[in-house]
Amino acid sequence: MTLQAVADALDTHLPTVKREETVFLSFLNGVLIGHDFSKLPVWLDDLWLEYWDEARASYESARDNYGEFSENLAWKWRLTVRDIGKAAPTIWAVLSGYPTDRRSKRSISKAPVVSPIIYPDPQLPAGRIRLRGFRRVH
To answer: Is there a domain that residue 125 lies in?
Structure first.
């Protein structure tokens, strides 16, 4: 279904459907790729999430080439092209933020990169910070 057909079926406007699609795909990307489970009322099995990690690796190696992406997944998961053709459009949409026919102007964030914690050097003297320009008001 096109977005216009969905909007007509729901008796709403096209931008509303597009916005909801974008929000939902972003949410799925955050859960399945970013592993943000804070808003989920269910448990996702690690084995199932590994499939999404493999899909993300295929997506990144395909460099925005949907055909190469679906072929990589079919080979990795030992599926026929016909079988992967049923699931690949949805997986592609979750990974890219848009269905296969539309291009994204922005990319959905990938798994968050955690920066290492930098502890202060204990041999450096503790300094004082003096704030200037503040007046006490009583």
So the answer is: no
| Model confidence pLDDT, tens digit, residues 91-104 | 999 998 877 555 54
The whole domain housing 35 covers 3-96
- DSSP-derived letter for residue 107 is P
Query: Does any domain span residue 107?
Result: no
- Structural domain contains residue 23: yes
Instruction: Judge residue 88's burial from the number of C-beta atoms within 10 Å of its C-beta, 0-12 exposed, 13-18 middle, 19 or more buried.
Output: buried
Percent of the residues in the chain that have a pLDDT greater than 70, as a whole number: 72
Core vs surface per residue 14-42: b (16+ CB within 10 A) or e: eeebeeebeeebeebbbbbbeeeeeeeee
